[in-house]
Structure formats: C-alpha cells, structure tokens
Design brief:
The complex is a heterodimer of chains A (361) and B (564). Chain A contains eight helices and 20 strands. In chain A, the strands form four sheets. Chain A has a six-stranded mixed beta sheet, with helices on both faces. In chain A, strands 13-12-11-14-20 form a five-stranded antiparallel beta sheet. In chain A, helix 2 packs across helix 3, helix 2 runs parallel beside helix 4 and helix 3 crosses helix 4. Chain B has 564 residues and is an all-alpha fold. Helix content of chain B is 74%, strand content 1%. In chain B, helix 5 packs across helix 13, helix 15 packs antiparallel against helix 16 and helix 20 packs antiparallel against helix 23. Classes of the chains: A alpha+beta (361), B mainly alpha (564).
Chain lengths: 361, 564
Amino acid sequence: MKKVSVQCRHVRLSFGPTRVLEDVNLDIEPGEFFALLGPSGSGKSTLLRLIAGFNRQQSGDVLIDGVDVSAKAPWERNVGMVFQSYALWPHLTVWDNVAFGLVERKVDKATIRQRVGAVLELVGLLAFAQRRPNQLSGGQQQRVALARTIVIEPQVLLLDEPLSNLDKTLRVQMRQELLATQRRLGLTTIFVTHDQEEAMTTADRMAVLDKGVVQQVGAPAALYDDPVNAFVAGFVGTMNLLPARVRAREAARITLDVEGVGELAFPLAGGAPEGERLLVSFRPHSLRVDLADAARDARYVWMPGTVEVSEFLGEFTRYRVRVGSHSLAVDQAHYAGLRKFAVGAAVSLGLEPSQVRLLAA
Amino acid sequence: MAGVQPGVWLAGALVLAFLLLFLVLPVGRVFYTAFVEADGTPTLGHFSAFFSQSLMEEAFFNSLTVAVMSAVFAALIAVPLAYFTVRFDFRGAILIQTLGVLPLIMPPFVGAVAMQLIFGRSGSLNLLLNDWFGFTLPIMEGLRGVIFVEAIHYFPFILMNLTVALRNIDGAMEEAAMSLGCRGWRLFWRVIFPLGLPGFVAGASLVFVKVFDDLGTPLVLGQTNLLAPQAYLRITQVGLEDPMGYVTSVIMIVFSIVAMALSAHVLRGKDYATTQKGGGSIQRRVLSTGGSIMAYAWIFIVLAIVLSPHLGVLLLSFAKVWSFSPLPDAYTLAHYATVFQDSSGMIRNTLLYCGLAAGIDVILGVTIAYLILRTRLPARQWLDWMATASLAVPGIVLAIGYLRLYKGVTLPGTDVLLTSTWVMIMLAYAVRRLPYALRSCIAALQQVHVSLEEAAESLGATKMRTIRRVVVPLMAGGILAGFVTSFITAAVELSATILLTSAESQAPMSYGIYLYMQSVAGRGPGAALGVLAIGVVAIGTYFSHVVVERTHSRFQPAAKGSEA
C-alpha cells in the first residue's frame, strides 16, 4: 500500500467568536504514527475532525498525499476515523458493522466476504462476527471500531482518544496492539490524546497543542529533553520552574538571580533565550538530594532546602522540598536499604547544570 | 417470607383485591362467556359463528384497516416533523413542539363533528373548492373520515417517541458512516432510521392500539361497522346475553395485546440511547432557503389541519346556524347558556368521578410503587404487570365485564343495583387510568434515594411515619403529575362511560357531548360543552407540565455531579 503524507498549511478555525485553531502548520510523514497531545479545549480533536472533513477551516489548506482536500466532503476523502465512543451501530452485527464501508464502495460480495473475514481475523474477532456490539467488552468494541476503519484501506487513519474508555491494564495492552497493527499496515496514523504517557510510548513524533496553537513538534524524547516553553515543559512530564533575573551573560556562562534562592551560575551549553527574565527548568529526577551537612560534589549547583512532603511511590520517592519561596519536586530512585529523609529535615539539593534548560518567562 | 412485615402483606392484599375485583375478574368473565355455551359447556362455536357472519367479518377487517392506515398516516405526518426538529437548526422547532400537544387536549370524538363541518361533503373546504374549482375532496367519506380524524389526533405519539429516539443518537454514529463513504438518503436509511426505529415502533404501536379500541369517533361519524361499535351495539341492542359482544371483546383485547407484545419484542435489547461521553447529538444543519420554505409549508399545513377541529368546535359553539356554508351564518352565546342551565350536573359529575378516580389511582400508584421498589413482597412485580395490563383493555370491554360480572348484585341493604350507580363509572375510570398514575409514582419514587429513608429511620421514625414525613413529600411532584394525568384523561373517556351511564342524572361531560352531538339541534350545546372540556384538559395539561418541570429542576442538582 502506498504511504501518504498529511500537511496542514496555515489552518485557522473559529466557532463564532471562539478561536479554536490558530495558524496550524504540520508536516506528517508517510507511514508515521503521529500524536496530537494537549489538554481539553486545546483544539486537538477539532484539528483531527478537520482532517476527517467534519470541520471546515476558515482559511489555510489541508493536503493529503500532496492534494488539497479542503473542499472535499468526509465521504470523498478516504480517511478512516476511529471515534472516542467507537460509534459502533447497535442495529448491525459486528460483521455488518465492518462490511458497511465496503458496501458503500459497491465492492462485490465475494470480495467483501474475503476482506471482512481477513480484517476480523487480524483483530482476533472472527468468532464474534455475528454478535451485536453491545454484547462485546470495551476492548473488543475498540477492535471492531479499528477493523471497520482499516478494512476500507484508508489513506490515513485518525484515532480520537481511542483508549480513553478502557481501564488501565487494557489500555496498555490495546496501545501495543494498535501500534503493532499500524506498523504492519504502514498506515499514516494521527492519534489524539490528552495522556502524555500514551503519546510518548506510541508516537514516532508528536505535536503539543495549547489554545489552538501548535507549541512544539518533535520526537517524544526531544520534547521531553528540550521543551521550547513552560507549557510544553509542564505538560510533557513533570518540571520544576524557577523564575530568575539575568545578572550577567558571558560567552559560556550565565549568572542568574533566582527569586528567594539567590545567585546561581550555569554554563551556557544549549544557549539561553533573550530577555531580562528567564525560567530555570529541570526534571525532578535530575536533582540530587543529600543531607545539609554532607560533602558537596563541585560539579553540581547546590541549594539548601527543607523537606515538606514525602511520598513513597515504589520505584522512587517524591519529595517536595522548600527552597526559598519555592517548592520543588525531587525524585530519588529507591532501592532496599536506602535511608529516606524525614519531613522537616534540612537537605541540600544538587542540580546538574547539563540537565538545566533555560526558558523564556 | 422473612423480612416482610404484616403491614406490607396487608397493603399488597388490598391492592390485589382491587385489581382482581375491578380488572381481572370482569375481563376474565368476558373471556369465559365468549368460550362457553349458555349452559356452561366449553365451545368455540361463538367464534366460528362470528366469522361466518359477513357483517362481523367485515367489521373485523375494517377495524384492522382503520388502525393500520391511521398509524400509516400518523407516521406520514409525524416522521418529517420529528426529523426537522432534530436535524435542522430553525425556529419552527417550537411550532412543532406545540403541534405535538394540541391534538391531545381534545378527545377525537369531540373534534369529529367539527371535522365533518369543515372537511365533510358539504363542509367549508369542499364548498369553497366546489365554488372555485368545481371539484370536491371526499376526505370524510366512510372509513376514510375515521382514519383522517384518528391520524391527526394520534400522530403526536409517534412524533414524541421518535423525536426522543432521534435526539439520543450519538453524532459519532453518523460521522462514522460519513467517513466510510455514506451520505444523503443512504445515510438516513442505513443509519439514522434504524437507530430511530425503536421510538417509531413504540409510537406507532400505541397509535394502532388506541385506534383499534376507539368507540367514540366511529360512533359520532356514524361508522358502526367496526369492532368497538359492533360490541357496543350488540350489548345495547341485542342484550347482555348475546355472545357476539363477548367474542368481539376478546378479539379486541387479543389484538391490543398482540400489538403491544410485538412492539415489545421488536424493542427488546434495542435500547439505542447511544449518546455517550465525548459525543453530542447528530449534526444540526442550517436549512437552505428552499428547504426552509418547504419545511414551513409542511408545518403550516399540518398546523392548519390539526387546529381545524379546535377551531371548528369553537365556531360551532358560537354558531346560530351552520350548514351548507363555509362559516356560520350568525353567532350566539345561547349554547353556553343552555349548557350551564341544563348540564351543570354533568360538569359536576365529571369533576366528582374523575377526582375520585384519580385519587384512587395515586393511592394505588404510590402503594404499588413502594411495594415494588422498597419491599421484598413475593410476586410484587405481578401487581405492576396487572395494573399496567389495563392499557390493553378497551373501555368498552371493561364496561361489558362490569355489567356481566355484577349483574343483579345490589348495594348491601337496598334494592339498588350496583351496575346502575355512578360508582361503576368512577371505578372504570380508576382502572383504565391507573397505568398513567403508576408510571408517574414509580418514576418519582426512583428519584428518592433509599438513604433518605434510612436516615429518617435511624433518627427514630417508624416505617409509616417515614413514608408520611419523607417519602410522600419527596414524591409529591410525581404524585400530583400522576393525579392530573389520570384526571384529564378520564375527563374525556367515552367508551366505558357510554355503556355504564344508566341515567342522564349520572352522566359526565363526555357522555353529554356525545348525546348532544347525536342531533343536529344539539350540536351547538355539544360543542359548547366540548369547549369547556378542552379548557379543563388544556389547563390540566399545562399545570401538570409545570409541576413536572419544577420537580425536575428540584432534583437536578442532586442528580448531577458526575458530569465532567
């Protein structure tokens, strides 16, 4: 099957006075598993429905395989969509649900039988072909919805929060199944989710949306390691943010005055945004935590603090440590025999400069 | 059985006794009589006799035709209206809602006479058509008239049920089909219609049963060759001993039950209320100018037809003379004077019978609801089924059952025959309207969480006092709505009334209207009485609507919270 690309060029959409999408530009590669990640109201579902043809942009173009489809109705686009609610028709059997699109395409009966059988085999539901959707479990319904969509061999597969109606264990299993099926078919797939774990574990690349604007596009690890702004930093994983004022910029070094903490100096490896005010950002697990009077490793930037909260999560312990006027999240990997810090203990937090990203405030 | 208190047994026994005495035994007696010879030996001879009489056979097929065709025409009116409301974004939706209520506030037999004056052979429409174009439309001729009157009276049942069903369709159901290449008519037939079908079937089967059982409309229109009028004529003219009346009754009940069972069978496992989280209703579209014009045209045609009996009755009630002219020749208030002079007794009777019947209904309704939902009384579900089964019993059949079962029974200590008293009319109303009050009470009690009662009991209130101080006050809205529904529907009941009224002094309004309408001279006062009856029903309907809305809003905040 030919793999196709999907592109959005300067797409804008408003519902009345509400601006839902603002100048969205995306290039989704042929065969890519692409995630649209964002909080509710970020416009991610609207964007997906726009690619499917259920919403119409006010300006800009949507290209599938290089062809502008903006003027095409949903049934002319050859785009398959799996709905959040699955939208399986309760009056039809599993078989008839899956055969629906082929009947619409006036495929001959023998071919329909062969293709529906094959796709039900693929999702492991051939034995359930004569059941009604409401006689299936949530995971099975999800597979029928997928089968119904891929049987028409769409150019692009769109998934709208496909796993949100499943319980946690099933979600992990279905996630892997979905990815395996996508890889086998090599189908360009766009996946909408508000769950960053879901996006990071499955997507080749992802776009983070907020308030109708694409904030950043990239591979999951790239977005995690190098978020471009405070929103992406906070939405993809957990991030500590310290507001700071620039004291001095030198060639390879920047000195910052962090409110309520004092002066900190960092090497300028990855560069720093312009401006007087910056945000110092770092992940909870990139901090070392030690007793206040312990010997200090000079490669780290050290800050004194007090433990306020301690939560034991198994793999690690998450502390909330008060540093000046800020409360920082600190994760310490756990192993048997490790001594934990008590609430109220005075500690030192060591920050490794290479793990620090400076963001525009 | 353990855990069932004596009081519960007593309440259950009283309800059961009522249902047995005034529903099960009378109807059972009708069945029994239809299947035995005069000496008591079992026979099927009455049935073969029935079908060997061409008159009866014709009545049977006429009834079937009228009921089916009424449902078909009601569907033709209702389906486009329901589709407009759900699919399109336009102001006419409010008009359609109004359309859905207007016909129901007037019993069809009241409108029938007015319909004849407007659509009949020498009615307004045909006089005008003849004057202007030289042809006439035989709309009211023969059975066609019955079908026409019934269809415009009962289409709201389909409209309301179908609208709800269509509204509950998850919009994604439609979008999924669209993205698979389906649109236009195919989209409607393959997805929207099947998903709305349960609502349609529920409404259409109701129309079928109502029309099949209706006695008043064919009688007023002079169409006696249908089952209900035949049963009535047999009993009143040939006598209570004539087996044909009973055979007819049995056939009517069987058809009602079969129609209801069929619709229940079709609907089983098809709760297509598919809106779920993440999904809205089906897409609303903006109508094109051409589409708007067509939609409004249809709505106004239906509105005009639906309003014509109301208008006709109103005109008739003020008309001095109205024949062979499009509109009355002169107007008068004399008919209202006549009505208030001669028929104030009828108005009082209606208020008395219907008030008592509705009172009995809510008492039984609350009791049964409580027994089903809150006690472990064995076989309690049967009380619900029995009470609801009265929906399938035509009024005329229930009346025949009463007359037969209580034949010769006198009031204790007197020579007065039980069947000659108004108590029988009142009881027939109570039994026939019990299902409405019962549904209302069950719905109301379901909204009262058990923990509210447990809280009262843990604070020291006994069962009876908990029911009085907590349960009933919380159910008040539902009880009131049930009372009003029972009351207003009983006020326009004719089929049982007509047979059970033995003296003019005990006649209620519905009987009075029917009696007046028998003669040309009586049409004016009959219409005036009809206007009063419509007024009573309209006020009652509005009142119960307000009560239900208020109760809903009172319970809403507590029920919410899970909405994300």
